[in-house]
Design brief:
By secondary structure, the chain is an alpha+beta fold. It contains ten helices and ten strands. 28% of the residues lie in helices and 15% in strands.
């Protein structure tokens, strides 16, 4: 078998040219993954501090078709009733087991927030958090390799035959819902457990939740459980969406009440360029101020 040096010499190239090219490719990816993160932290290229990271978007012709949901007659969405969640982490454990999520990484995570009740005394609100499956998804617009796209029911998904770990999707996500797998060097996020939903099952987190705080289904069907819960909370004036100023049209709604409105716990949800982190549950963060 010819050595790498022999191959390089036979092709008329300098020895180890392949190694040099590989090193350049690694440097490029590290720049995209970490350099953009630093730029985001420094505020470079932020065209609108309130809106999405539009400076990361590709030309429209590159994402227009991927931003369209298949015409399958479904419109999948979520309602998260924060009044019911008691922080058992069952949804996270089920998600990790179902999707083989490694230690230290999360597709979904529960946000904790301690607050003083208007009637007196302290309480804690717990909010199950995951991808918002936006109608106008910034991650799709920012993806340069065409991996981010709309799947069945409009679910925002990753094509792992195409994803090459540029991480611009992570930088563009206003909800910190994407992480880059350090081994595969690919983007990972909630995909609505499509492999289960296609078989008529619920996402693993929904079927595991003992407090019935998670609702998933077809928003296009007014009789679906998620549609009925959304309508009920909306009529009660207890329905909110996360960071509406980002104008992403998320397909996730949160049931809240006057004791713990979204503005109190929203700052603890990751933002652009970040992801769910294991230290979120550290005892040292329990008293962290928003």
């Amino acid at each position: 078998m010819a050595s790498r040096q022999d191959v390089g010499e036979q092709d008329g190239e300098e020895p180890l040219a392949a190694d040099a090219m590989a090193a350049k490719d690694v440097d490029r990816r590290q720049f995209l993954q970490y350099g953009l993160a630093g730029a985001a932290a420094a505020g470079w290229g932020l065209q609108d501090a309130q809106g999405p990271r539009s400076d990361l978007f590709m030309p429209e012709e590159q994402y227009r078709e991927r931003l369209k949901a298949p015409e399958d007659g479904k419109k999948f969405g979520w309602v998260v009733d924060t009044r019911r969640c008691f922080g058992c982490h069952g949804c996270e454990v089920a998600c990790k087991a179902e999707n083989d999520v490694p230690l230290g990484q999360y597709i979904r995570q529960t946000v904790y927030h301690d607050y003083e009740k208007p009637s007196g005394g302290l309480a804690r609100v717990m909010v199950p958090m995951a991808c918002q499956h936006c109608e106008d998804a910034p991650c799709i617009k920012a993806c340069p390799c065409g991996a981010m796209h709309k799947g069945p029911g409009g679910s925002v998904q990753v094509d792992y035959e195409t994803c090459s770990g540029h991480a611009s999707c992570q930088e563009a996500c206003p909800y910190g819902a994407i992480y880059i797998d350090p081994v595969a060097n690919q983007a990972v996020k909630c995909h609505n457990c499509t492999h289960r939903v296609d078989l008529g099952m619920e996402p693993s987190c929904v079927s595991t939740c003992p407090s019935e705080a998670l609702y998933f289904g077809d928003l296009g069907d007014p009789e679906s459980q998620v549609s009925r819960m959304k309508a009920q909370l909306e009529a009660e004036g207890k329905l909110e969406q996360l960071r509406p100023e980002k104008k992403t049209q998320p397909r996730t709604w949160f049931g809240v009440d006057e004791d713990h409105p979204m503005r109190e716990w929203e700052p603890k949800v990751p933002r652009e360029g970040s992801s769910y982190a294991p230290d979120a549950y550290s005892v040292y963060n329990w008293k962290e101020e928003s």
